[in-house]
Amino acid sequence: MDNTASCMIEVCDLHKHYKDVHVLRGISTTVAKGEVCAVIGPSGSGKSTFLRCLNRLEEASSGEIFINAQEITDPHLNLNKMRENIGMVFQGFNTLFPHMPAIQNIMLAPVNVRGLSHKEAEAYGMELLSRVGLADKHASYPDMLSGGQQQRVAIARALAMRPEVMLFDEPTSALDPEMIGEVLEVMIDLAKQGMTMVVVSHEMSFIREVADKVLVLADGVIIEEGSPQEVFTNPRHERCRSFLSKIL
Ligand code: ADP
Ligand code: MG
């Protein structure tokens, strides 16, 4: 297999310090094009920090990250350009612009960044809203939408830049239980269409259905890495066994 052609994300010995706190302590991994990588681990283990380093919302202290052969950690990189290629959906569902209806939230980047006309962006925005099952809510302001609907609009907004990679940081953890399924469904759909995704989530049904690999983080290092089957049924590390016993 030609590695450079199939590799979408490569992380080499990533470290992150906040002053004297050593949060990520040598993370190395790869994610192939079209793969879904799930990241799990105890609270405070560094999952969000890891994800935020992948699009430079946090600066790595050392190490290298490549996305589609481009060095993300290059200090001279054009951050805006790079971020067009990496969509992110955050924990919590109140990340939409409150003063804009759903469709305008989605049109913003295509108009301002990709230079689409209002009409083109609107048509594309409607297509994306349909994709997340919310075409009928195009005129709704965020506060008229449920948490699950807001999170689906946030996914559509991230997709509007036509990213090659999508990052999700516990996208369903702030939602009421009855809304989790609708968001996971959109994510499963995206995964099946071949999007490369790194997803911090403990939703086992999602992980079992679409994750190609699972990383288990503890204290800023990867303690287990493998297919869901390998990691869930036969973890080698005692810490991983004890963590899994709490969530499985
Ligand atoms: P997780 O997402 O796995 O819960 P985080 O990546 O949010 O973990 O945090 C990992 C560790 O880094 C925690 O101990 C947290 O307190 C610390 N941390 C995160 N962000 C900062 C920051 N901006 N300044 C100092 N410490 C931080
Ligand atoms: Mg987190």
Keyphrases for this structure?
four-stranded antiparallel beta sheet; globular; alpha/beta; binds adenosine-5'-diphosphate; 10 strands; 248 residues
Describe this structure in words.
- The chain is of the alpha/beta class and 248 residues long.
- Helix content is 38%, strand content 25%.
- It contains ten helices and ten strands.
- The chain has helices spanning 3-6, 47-54, 79-84, 102-112, 118-131, 147-159, 177-192, 204-210, 228-233, 238-247, and strands at 7-18, 21-32, 36-40, 62-67, 70-71, 86-89, 165-169, 196-200, 213-218, 221-226.
- The strands form two sheets. Strands 6-7-8-3-9-10 form a six-stranded mixed beta sheet, with helices on both faces. The protein has a four-stranded antiparallel beta sheet with strand order 2-1-4-5.
- A hairpin with a 2-residue loop joins β4 (62-67) and β5 (70-71).
- α4 packs across α5 (118-131) and α6 runs parallel beside α7 (177-192).
- The longest helix is centred in the last third of the chain and has 16 residues, at 177-192.
- The chain is globular.
- The two termini are 34 Å apart.
- The mean pLDDT is 96.
- The chain binds adenosine-5'-diphosphate and magnesium ion.
